[in-house]
Amino acid sequence: MSGLRLSPLDAVHRSLGAKMVEFGGWDMPVNYPIGTIEEHLACRRDAVMFDVSHLGTVRVEGGAAFGALQAAFTNDLAKVQPGRAQYTHLLDEADASVMDDIIVWWLDDDIFDVMPNASNTDDVVGAIGGTDTTSTRAIIAVQGPSARERVATVFPDAAQVGRFRVQRCAWRGAECVVAGTGYTGEAGLEIAVPVDAASELWSALSDSGVLPAGLGARDTLRLEAGLPLHGHELGAGITSLQAGLEWVVAWNKPTFRGRDALLAERNAGVARVLRGIATEGRRPPRAECRVTVDGADVGVVTSGNFSPMLGHGIALALLHPDVAVGTDVSVDVRGAGLPGSVVTLPFVAKR
Fold it and tell me: Cβ contacts of residue 151 below 8 Å, gap of 6+?
């Protein structure tokens, strides 16, 4: 498709018969011939790999780097140290909307790789500075209960990187950055590999028994794990507090972008909160469907799909804060009421 950015692994995906779709300005695989459900189940039962090269990488370095990130992001980098990763938010200054949710990879004392969502890289660079290094690497996310075991046969040093740890590791002479992070609710690793070594590493992982999986399975996996997606559970008009992510806000810091607006919302009380809804039957709820209780509108679905592990529909929804876990609801799917109930997140326990 004209104008879309291509992953360094684009030719590999096409050779495997992947169905390609636009995502965040990139042409990316949504699924391979075995289909999204089988890819999803393979991740829960064994190990799969995703091409997540569409995620941004912004290198921020130098003596002022730590202070710049502390002043911009909600979380407190002082809680971690070099060699660790941290989840954080970048807020709109005016209304505390989540401009992006981000993982920071703290590589060395004064070197940070900030990992924005695909379409937000330019905005993040504008907010924090740094250098966009996205085009220099591919990122392969290996996820699943057997992820480390599979990676160990190909890239032993990478397999040793712990959860939310970050480490430089060489693979066949190529310097990679490996983080014990992911977006599936499973154990796993994300490997930033130089462009010229990406296809070879993908092939080696495939030979070790790791199956390729696309964005379709990545979405159903993160939904089962109750993880937010920017543009759905986070974004314009949605704050960290509404998304139930106050744990990512370091109120002890004297400043961060959007702090005053977020504090005002905390003091006033949020008007809506993110909840999980389990629906009856296989028909999935979808984003933008209205949610009612006894005929009264109480909110809107932000993401919905069929859960391959549970065998029924699940959804994340922004609901009135009085709608508690255990409440019976109805989700309006094309004019038909889909029965459901509010449940505790995650839908499938994280491992």
Answer: 142, 158, 159, 189, 205, 208, 210
Cα–Cα distance measured from residue 236 to residue 183, given in angstroms and rounded to the nearest whole number: 22
| Total tally of structural domains belonging to the chain | 2
State the CATH number of the domain containing residue 69: 3.30.70.1400
Same domain, 218 and 69: no
This prediction's pTM: 0.97
Q: Which residue has the tokens 């829960």?
A: 44
d(CA 225, CA 185): 5
User: Which residues constitute the domain of residue 85?
Assistant: 58-120
From first to last of the 351 residues of the chain, give the pLDDT tens digit.
468 999 999 999 999 999 999 999 999 999 999 999 999 999 999 999 999 999 999 999 999 999 999 999 999 999 999 999 999 999 999 999 999 999 999 999 999 999 999 889 999 999 999 999 999 999 999 999 999 999 999 999 999 999 999 999 999 999 999 999 999 999 999 999 999 999 999 999 999 999 999 999 999 999 999 999 999 999 999 999 999 999 999 999 999 999 999 999 999 999 999 999 999 999 999 999 999 999 999 999 999 999 999 999 999 999 999 999 999 999 999 999 999 999 999 999 977
Q: Angle at Cα 338 formed by Cα 336 and Cα 341, nearest 5°? A: 155
Q: Which residues are registered as beta bridge partners of 313?
A: 306
Same domain, 89 and 143: no
